[in-house]
Amino acid sequence: MFDRYQAGEQAILVHVDFPDESSREDLQEFKMLVSSAGVNALSVVTGKRNSPHPKYFVGSGKAEEVADAVNLFEANVVLFNHALSPSQEKNIEALCQCRVIDRTTLILDIFAQRARTHEGKLQVELAQLRHISTRLIRGWTHLERQKGGIGLRGPGETQLETDRRLLRERMNNIRKRLDKVEKQRQQGRRSRVRAEIPTLSLVGYTNAGKSTLFNLITKANVYAADQLFATLDPTLRKIEVEDVGRVILADTVGFIRHLPHDLVAAFKATLTETREAELLLHVVDIADERRSENIDEVQTVLDEIEAGDVPQLLICNKIDKLHDCQPRIDRDENGIPIRVWLSAQANLGIELLFEALAERMGRQVIKHSLRIPPTAGKFLGALYQLNCIANEGYDEQGNCLVDIKLPVREWNRLIKQDKADVERFIES
């Protein structure tokens, strides 16, 4: 049922330049998408048009050129760097006598290959079903007649209607299962809110270096590669930030130009981590010539998932690819960090990132001198766990004298957790 292909398939790529910026796609990025899907590109057919041709998208002459390339190179699939209508796909397939895949289906297939978790697989399948439900008619015209045979003659639904009904039932079933997973995620978020643990979320254009930075910061082993959509399933890890304490860092799926709406809708539950984050770390491949357009595209998707108003810290990554660029922090007129220049791959400037995080998130820090009696050993142990003790000593009565420095949220959490009147330990 699905337009899925095996690794190593031979493809003809088709790319059209349009004068309208909103319709324009990047050919180099398309080649990376094809490579990420495990497809071998034999040839690229390019052209220019003011608007798509209603029948073939590329015009009848260019369509014949694509068909000739298929025959010449013995290709078995044609990949378009654009979104095609079902009728356009059907017409080109009839002309080329092989499968035709558009950009949206290609991205969906890459997501299907990369999904690892149960939730990720369900989300990708839901997006695929939404997409294919509009394309059932293509190649299925022989199923438009009603089913025949003993007991099946007469009024009834056609095979096409049956397939559509089965698709709807499957989509409803997936939505119910995703709702259960979302409830589990909400429980996890509620427990973090109760513990007053803030969340940071890595966002950015695909292949900007988010997972490499995530691995470096958290010492995790998340899959990172120089390919589009290397990360699909979100990963959460705890990190320690000075003057802030424990923080949850989330690595999320990368964005891309004209990200299929079916995917955005399917992954809205996963991207809730982004929407509810205290700060977004917007990672940018600063060596990319189209970095400004990539930033705009990410902002567009953030607006779509209602995360456009979340505060951001811009991470200018891959400075090792620039000539004579050193790690640094850029600040606004109030001295607040707004950009950090670093290289995750070369491990440059990571300490500046933590410095910027401490300034952006740790502005409410308290300092106390405490006199803790021997009977409050549990509370003293909690202070050790938070690593917030600056000085320590004992008086003649055996009381522990400590100077502490920690975020207000951690102090408030200690007061809630400890049954004793913690504030009586504070020295006046």
UniProtKB/TrEMBL annotation:
Domain of life according to the entry: Bacteria
Location in or out of the cell: Cytoplasm
Coiled-coil ranges per UniProt: 157-191
Hflx-type G domain: residues covered: 198-365
Keyword Metal-binding: yes
Gene Ontology terms: cellular component: cytoplasm
Cofactor: Mg(2+)
Keywords associated with the record: Coiled coil, Cytoplasm, GTP-binding, Magnesium, Metal-binding, Nucleotide-binding
Keyword Protein biosynthesis: no
HAMAP family: GTPase_HflX (MF_00900)
Described purpose of this protein according to its UniProt entry: GTPase that associates with the 50S ribosomal subunit and may have a role during protein synthesis or ribosome biogenesis.
Protein name: GTPase HflX
Organism: Thalassotalea algicola
